[in-house]
Amino acid sequence: MNICLISYHSCPFSPLGFESTGGMNVYIRELSSELSNFPNLNIDIFTRIQDRKLEGIRYISDKVRIIHIKGGPAQYIDKKNLYKHIGEFSKRLLEFISLNGISYEIIYSHYWLSGLIGEKIKRKFKIPLVHNYHTLAFLKKKAIKREYRENPNRIKMEEFLLNVCDKIILSSENEKENILKEYKIPCWKLKIIYPGVNYKIFYSVDKLIARKSLRINHQNKIVLYVGRIEPVKGLFTIIKALNIIKREKISELENLKLIVVGGGKRESDFQRNSEISKIMDFINENNIGDKVIFIGSREQNDLRNYYSASDALIVPSLYESFGLVTIEALACGTPVIASKIGELRKIIHENKNGLYFTPDNPASLVETILYFYKNRASLWKRDKIRKDIINKFTWEKTAEETFNLFKKILKIYKFEKRAYLPPNYNTMKSFC
Ligand code: UDP
């Protein structure tokens, strides 16, 4: 099986935790690595050239290649401004396929921009297109309201993709329900496949040892944030909660500190991020700099020390397709305090591996943190937290379900001897 995987706006192997590199990159890395264990399966990942030094073809393994294709200037461009270069990228991708005589059997596109490219390939070669949105703009818009600043074409194009793709892979039940409510499409189009956690990287380290290695005072109460910094991720809610703690002089939380992992590596990464600027201004105005430690982005391999050193991970998102950091923290045995949204409601079991607070509500977060420390939640069994999560979420399972889905789709294509979609509704609906 030759798979054409499209990750137009972001190279899956770029450093994580920047504005455009997060869960989707991890998803593609882990999935392609696991899929390559299946016999007779090859994956070509097509991505936009963002750096002249990174052109051409790179072999990740003997079965996975990254192929860099030109689409606009060879430099970083905010994904909101990449729509206009899709035409050039698609044309060059089609040329590459024809020139090299490769025959792909299935396309798997990631994020709406790649979906639009996938649709062109599907049309030309008459092969099935499977798409993963990673986030949906209409849900993001509902969640962040005034802060919503996406490309004006995005919502319309995501609806277009719902119609033209053979299958949509989602990471959450909640997204499936929302799509079915919002759009008139048959449910067989949507397939939930949960992402996983790399349990070989994410495991528990003794808290004191982890703190020592990170030079964190063992007497402090430490909560952690990990991820990209943008309005929908809700970091501002934690900062506002810290302000309440300081203003109201909540003595139980006097020595509470927040560690923030993400946002980039250089000063310039922080400066060009408007959400970080807004947060920094608030921190300075309210004089709460002593409560927050920004350490920038870190490699995944370094994260288990941060998860293990912390009393809890806080996931303050206003909307999440899934939220990989949640299961990474849990795989390290660290409880999670999360806003009560989406799939998080299924992953977190109150008073067992975490707690909830009302999204976008700093006062509710303060109350929850207080409850967490008062109820000695740090005594929840770390081993059990880890065991439960890695029993449920592994990339092996994600890959197996994806592979089986691809096989079924290809079988239907062959069975119907149809060159072009939509395939027969009756055959497909048996998948529902
Ligand atoms: N991440 C990382 N280093 C950082 C920040 C984040 O490796 O400095 C990784 C993190 O381990 C997780 C991913 O980025 O796997 C973020 O995924 P998530 O689903 O939580 O958020 P998304 O980026 O999809 O919104």
How does this model look, in words?
It is a single chain. It is built from 17 helices and 14 strands. The model is unreliable at 423-432 (pLDDT under 50). With 432 residues, the chain is an alpha/beta fold. It has helices at 23-35, 86-100, 112-125, 137-144, 154-164, 173-182, 207-213, 235-247, 267-271, 274-285, 300-309, 324-331, 344-347, 362-374, 382-392, 395-416, 425-428; strands spanning 2-6, 42-48, 57-59, 64-69, 106-110, 129-132, 167-170, 190-192, 221-226, 256-261, 292-296, 312-315, 336-339, 354-357. The chain has an eight-stranded mixed β-sheet with strand order 3-4-2-1-5-6-7-8, with helices on both faces. Strands 11-10-9-12-13-14 form a six-stranded parallel β-sheet, with helices on both faces. 46% of the residues are buried. The two termini are 24 Å apart. The protein is 42% helix and 15% strand. It has two domains: 2-196 and 394-431, 3-Layer(aba) Sandwich (Rossmann fold), CATH 3.40.50.2000; 207-391, Rossmann fold (3-Layer(aba) Sandwich), CATH 3.40.50. The protein binds uridine-5'-diphosphate. Residues 16-17, 22-24, 26, 226-228, 261-262, 297-298, 300, 303, 322-325, 328 line the site of uridine-5'-diphosphate.
Please state how the strands of the largest beta sheet are arranged side by side: 3-4-2-1-5-6-7-8
Radius of gyration using CA atoms only: 22 Å
Q: What is the annotated CATH architecture of the largest domain?
A: 3-Layer(aba) Sandwich
Runs in which pLDDT lies below 50 for 5 or more consecutive residues are 423-432
Characterize the main sheet: 8 strands, mixed
- Write down how many β-strands occur, each being a DSSP E stretch of 2 or more residues: 14
Outline type: globular
CATH superfamily of the largest domain: Glycogen Phosphorylase B
- Gap between N and C termini: 24 Å
Mean pLDDT: 93
What is the CATH topology descriptor of the largest domain? Rossmann fold
The share of residues in helices is 40-55%
Tell me the name of the CATH class of the largest domain.
Answer: Alpha Beta
DSSP helical segment count: 17
| Proportion of residues in extended strands | 15-25%
What oligomeric state do these chains adopt? Answer: single chain
